[in-house]
Amino acid sequence: MKTFCKHIVLNLFIAVVFLYSLTDLGVASETVKIEPPVPAPYMKSVQNQNPSQLYLLRSVKTIADQKSFYLGLSFVMEEGWHIYWRTPGDSGLPPELIWSETQNYASSEIIWPTPKRYFFDKYVNYGYAGLVTLPVKVNLHEEKKGFKANLKVDYLVCKDVCLPQEASFMIDIPAGFGIRSDEAVLIDGALKNIPTNDPVKAGMDVVSVSSTADKLTVNALSSTLFSKPEVFVESEDPLILFSTLPQKKVSGDEAVFVFDYVIPDGQTLLGKAITITLSDRDKAIEKKVEVIEQETSGQSSGQLSLYILLVAFLGGLVLNVMPCVLPVLSLKMLSLVKNSKMPARVIKLNFLGTVIGILTTFLLFGYIAVFLKSLGANVGWGMQFQSPIFVVFMMIVLVLFALNLWGVYQINLPLKLRDALTFLDQKISKGQSKIVESFFSGVFVTLLATPCTAPFLGTALGFSLSRSAYEIYSIFFMIGLGLSFPYILLSIFPSFVSLLPKPGRWMEYVKKILGGFLLLTALWLASVLGFDAVKASNQEVNWITFNEKQIDNFVEEGRVVFVDITASWCLTCQVNKHLVIETGDVEKAFSAQNVVLMRGDMTEKNADISAYLARNGKYGIPFNAVYGPNKRQGIILPVLLSKQAVFDALRAAKH
């Protein structure tokens, strides 16, 4: 009977704690008065009348074929009292675990939930109040072997004063079938409160962290409107001190936090690794970042800069000479030569139609990006090529265009559609131009442009896709303006058309050549559907499949890691691969330095790789980075690779 009562009381305690853990982790609204249960044989709590009680919970009753399990430190505090986070703030100490007389014990770590701020006079501390369970992950030496240990927990509980506390526990978990304990549900609930490192799950992300001489600026973005966001900053260097309370500016889905900091003379915060914990409502994300100069971030004030707009424009302009777009631009020029005798007004309208088609499609892309971001999804440049239906559609269109250029047939639209287009042209240009046809030509140009990530374009897209709706639309518009700039010039100065060669028989040969280019593009798209070839390349002897979690493990071993994120639909990726990555010089450097080669495939959708790109502020590919003992945060390489850039990064990451 006595044992039965113990079991009932313990389960009542677990139920109360679990329900509380589903609510806020902050100060309880009422004084916490929980009578401790009669401890189980493996439990010993603080047995005095201090304003806190500590209970040890375990997730399993027996150890099976597992290398780790969880314990739980369940603190119960009266109103106004709190314990400390791993970074306590202006004062205090976090709980400390002291193990002794262990069997099958390898290591352990406290998994920290998101803290709260507590104020005392002008001081601010980080910690937990009321009732909180801190999960403890215990790693074992061997599977299927029991675990024994004595554990002492030293901690401070504070209000107006701080009281040192100590609790001792004897833990004995035998080998068995890995049966879960009654307390496992409480530990599971506590683990749900641990910050994630995935922006998609959190619904928010740290966009940039930049600094001046004495200010650190953290820019954050949410997929929904922020409520009451908080940011906590931690440095690996204990000599760098951040103010515990930042200046905060929240505007819709954006938030900017500015911290004062103090750093020893002769040192700099630039390039140092810091940990940012961003929380809002019941979600939180923890991110390790490298601080950059505030001037280079271009976004500390949350405003678009002329620099970013110019970069977006140049990115769109360069797309015109990329292999995705050049054939279509050449066809447009060929059409101009053929109709060079048209009135200047008609030429203007035709080019205006193409410009409107390009800009409309880019703004539509912007709308899709904003909509998907509002759902918490990661979006990326060229993502539509991950859809087999879209790829097949583009293949059919390209083949039809190629056959038309070769004179196999003439494309005749359905009568009703032709009548509708003629009616629109009649209204717009009195039937003298083909402005509607030109509009769809602009749409086609934009769709073909998306597999290419030109220089400048990656920077602009990386900025826009991590920003607000207004900035996304602005930058997509500027990219479209850059892509359509040749057409804009010719619409403003139609007399330039007279500088083109005169019509002649040579045009038939050029049409056949351009038709060949379009057919090659269609064949390339067909290869996209055969993405198994790319997957096979990932499993070559020298390459391993991308796994972000393994990067830190290799770096801890002192090795350098080269990451290549690619896709079969990404032309720039293939150029980098054949002209740089797989050349003899670079492969020799990889081999000489025993570099770990890690390749990720984005031919199909891959949520893990998308999240990895987003954490690095990138939303398009190719993406290449080098990690090493001297550059744990990674060195992101240029979109268009060069051998020298790879050599320099390998050297910097190693030494």
Which sheet architecture does the biggest sheet show? 6 strands, mixed
Radius of gyration (Å) = 31 Å
Percent of residues in helices: 25-40%
Mean pLDDT: 75
Low-confidence parts, pLDDT < 50 over ≥5 residues?
1-48, 295-303, 531-539
What kind of assembly state do the chains in view correspond to?
single chain
Amount of beta strand: 25-35%
Distinct helical segment count: 20
Number of strands: 24
Query: By helix and strand content, what is the structural category?
Result: alpha+beta
Principal-axis shape? elongated
**Alpha-carbon distance between the termini?**
67 Å
Protein architecture, described:
This protein is of the alpha+beta class and 655 residues long. The chain is 39% helix and 26% strand. The strands form six sheets. Strands 11, 12, 14, 15, 16 and 19 form a six-stranded mixed β-sheet that branches. A five-stranded mixed β-sheet has the order 20-22-21-23-24, with helices on both faces.
Record the SSE blueprint:
Layout: H1 2-21, E1 52-58, E2 68-77, E3 82-89, E4 96-103, E5 105-110, E6 116-120, E7 123-129, E8 131-140, E9 147-158, E10 162-173, H2 184-191, H3 199-202, E11 204-211, E12 215-222, E13 230-235, E14 241-242, E15 247-251, E16 254-262, E17 273-280, E18 283-290, E19 292-293, H4 294-297, H5 306-319, H6 326-338, H7 344-374, H8 388-405, H9 415-429, H10 435-449, H11 457-464, H12 469-483, H13 485-492, H14 506-529, H15 532-538, E20 543-545, H16 548-556, E21 561-566, H17 571-581, H18 584-592, E22 596-601, H19 607-615, E23 623-628, E24 631-636, H20 643-654
Parallel strand pairs: 11-19, 20-22, 21-22
Antiparallel strand pairs: 1-2, 2-8, 3-7, 4-9, 5-8, 6-7, 9-10, 11-12, 12-16, 13-17, 14-16, 15-16, 17-18, 21-23, 23-24
Helix pairs in contact: 1-2, 5-11, 5-12, 6-14, 7-10, 7-12, 7-13, 8-14, 11-12
